[in-house]
Amino acid sequence: MGSADRLERWESRSEWALAAVAVVFLAVYSIQVLTTPDRGVTNLLNGVMSLLYLVFVVDYVVRLTLAPQRARWFFRHLLDLAIVVLPFLRPLRLLRLVVLVKVLHRAGGDAIRGRVAAYTAGSAILLVYVASLAMLETERNAPDSTITNFGTAVWWSITTVTTVGYGDTYPVTGAGRVIAVLLMIGGISLIGVITATVASWIVERVSEEDTASRAATAAQIDDLRDEIRQLSVQLSDRESAREESWSSR
Amino acid sequence: MGSADRLERWESRSEWALAAVAVVFLAVYSIQVLTTPDRGVTNLLNGVMSLLYLVFVVDYVVRLTLAPQRARWFFRHLLDLAIVVLPFLRPLRLLRLVVLVKVLHRAGGDAIRGRVAAYTAGSAILLVYVASLAMLETERNAPDSTITNFGTAVWWSITTVTTVGYGDTYPVTGAGRVIAVLLMIGGISLIGVITATVASWIVERVSEEDTASRAATAAQIDDLRDEIRQLSVQLSDRESAREESWSSR
Amino acid sequence: MGSADRLERWESRSEWALAAVAVVFLAVYSIQVLTTPDRGVTNLLNGVMSLLYLVFVVDYVVRLTLAPQRARWFFRHLLDLAIVVLPFLRPLRLLRLVVLVKVLHRAGGDAIRGRVAAYTAGSAILLVYVASLAMLETERNAPDSTITNFGTAVWWSITTVTTVGYGDTYPVTGAGRVIAVLLMIGGISLIGVITATVASWIVERVSEEDTASRAATAAQIDDLRDEIRQLSVQLSDRESAREESWSSR
Amino acid sequence: MGSADRLERWESRSEWALAAVAVVFLAVYSIQVLTTPDRGVTNLLNGVMSLLYLVFVVDYVVRLTLAPQRARWFFRHLLDLAIVVLPFLRPLRLLRLVVLVKVLHRAGGDAIRGRVAAYTAGSAILLVYVASLAMLETERNAPDSTITNFGTAVWWSITTVTTVGYGDTYPVTGAGRVIAVLLMIGGISLIGVITATVASWIVERVSEEDTASRAATAAQIDDLRDEIRQLSVQLSDRESAREESWSSR
């Protein structure tokens, strides 16, 4: 069995386990940021966090080991390394939650647009929640900070993700600005996806309106082919019939 | 008759009645927010509001009773419950006005794009008006509020819905921020719809430009099928003719 | 000749004359706003403005008179009336310049997308220029105004039309806010048109990429029909040939 | 050999050389803006800059000389002249770097959408970096400036390019505002490209979903034509066979 297969198998097997780890991570992270737990709980949470951290490190090392071309894999997965190594990029470990969108597959039904809508809504909510948590943790104690409680952090996240940007709240620290930039990129993508989904719906409706401008579909072409085949069969049947009539004479 | 049918029939019958209730609700709400009526009128308006409220409650209870799978219906319509129960979400009762867009059907004519444009314009105006009313009611008496009269509320609504967001006016209360978030989501959707409508128009025009790149239409395929059928008829006619000439010999 | 034809003929004949009037209007308006002319020039400019105003009034009255169903025309052209009557909406008289986009027809070449791009660029520049003039005139002397010179007015226009909206400059008067709202609507439409044009280009490129996914074109269907016709001709030729061979025997 | 050919050949040959010059220009410009080099290094950098400047001037003069219709070329390339002559537009010399996107051709692979994504990401990063440099140089020493270090300049660039526009940082000088306007135009285009790419992907996916609504492809039409041709061949084969059987009798 090739090494590439082993990497692939590891990834498909560990996918859900890592998603579960990410969910626990999100829960612990939320508690750490949103509550002021007493010393004992804090120690417990820190312990859990260290364990979860270990899982991510182990996963990274295993994948690097299984990769057929290690140097190439290493350079292609520098972001993975950064997420594991830099405490600053800790919230990005939640990218593992991407696997959860598979659950949304069913929620959105069979239609592509339904699924895209479910993904978009799910991603938007997760994005805003995580960005608010990370921003609150980062900005809370900064001097001149405008984001000092969770409500305001969510408010800031939403004005940013929709690109409204009133400017009543904004990050003042470097780390906060990096989080904001990631959120803005997410926001632009979300707007793009919404517009695109609506556009595809309108384009389809317009083309359904009258036959004269409706696009020819593959189904129609298939029908046409059937008719041509019948014509061919018809032709060859009559030929045989005539040949028989010839020979019988 | 199935229970699902009964629910459906109730909904189609009560649709316009509830829209009328929503119109009255909008009128009373406007008077309450925009004017400072004397005590008598205030009591009258509050009475009307309570009556309208009762209509919404009755509608909710009836629909819950008629639903074939009540538990499922309950969880799928949590928003409906929230709108009825939470005084805070009162303006959302105006969602009933959605039925009025059916009137716009005729205004937009037969073309899909005309109808989408009419819906969009109608929804945008209603959205901005209601958001302004709700925002003014919520923020008017808040300390440090920047939205203290209807003109400013409308100005804030439009800078928000277009995602311009100068930041000269913005909500400062929690309730005001929830209204703002709903308005932003509406604003992004509006931009998406406008872009999508223009895109569909341009795509169509571009494809109309020259035959070489114009998409094959269903009408053309139908023409093609007709020709193949004629060919088939022609073939079978001549065969019969020949057979006759054979037998006549 | 029907009255509707007369109205149409008047409109097509007066189109360019009114555009010329609008150009003069724009020039005089620019001078009035941007310079501080002495008393004599001011009187002259006011005189010219009154004359131009008369032209718009005459055009409105003529069109109303020529309209076959005057009451219907009146209600469908309330905006035209408002533009003529309300001094406040004076800049909207420049809508007449729309006819100038016909000149851009040639600049954009034959292709639809080229023409759309030329229209968009032309409209954007005119929109920003006129909005800046109107805003400067309106806000210049308002207390607490942030827009007091033409450079700042242009800066405000562009941050608004792109929906960036920093909030360092914004209108404070009611009239200024109405101008801003019109500009925002224009800005959203511009973004929509840009996105849509790019989208149509990408969709076309993607479909050109490989035959397997390229859409069937009308030209291909035409080719197909030709082949079927040839088949039909071939069939009928041979039949005739055989019949001749029969009869000649 | 025509003069137009000579111009074209010059442009294709000098393309990469000018891109190299632009890279050096970018490096020197970055050092000048981001560091405070001592007097000796400053003189050296100024010298290099003058040399690079000479290259741009020479290129402009050569192209003007080679142009078949010099007057026409001159008016069609006024921007090129402005970039060479006005020190203010110095950063626009980096437009030469556009040729580097050819390198991205390979990074994006064969697919149109991959290439568009690679172009967009590359252009966005370059645009934000250069705008930040230019803005920092322009605003750094202005009174009341809000952009006084590179981090803040990048932060401003990104809030502008995504059209969020908090308004915590914004240009206050005329030159800074011109740079901002160029960046906004770039930002809107980027959003347009992102939306359009997503839209084209969704439209394709939706049409792939079921045969009934999938668009007829050129490949299907080709298959159809093959069948018709076979039918035609079949027809003519049998005819010949029969004719032979006739003549052999």
UniProtKB/TrEMBL annotation, chains A, B, C, D:
Keywords: Coiled coil, Ion channel, Ion transport, Membrane, Transmembrane, Transmembrane helix, Transport
Potassium channel domain location: 126-203
Localization terms from the record: Membrane
Coiled-coil ranges (or none): 214-241
Molecular functions (GO terms): voltage-gated potassium channel activity
GO annotation, cellular component aspect: voltage-gated potassium channel complex
InterPro entries hit by this protein: K_chnl_dom, VG_K_chnl, Volt_channel_dom_sf
Membrane topology: Multi-pass membrane protein
Major site of localization recorded for this protein: membrane
Signal peptide: none
Alphabetical GO biological process terms: action potential
Chain ranges passing through the membrane: 16-35, 47-66, 78-104, 116-135, 147-166, 178-203
Protein name per Swiss-Prot or TrEMBL: Voltage-gated potassium channel
Organism: Mycolicibacterium hippocampi
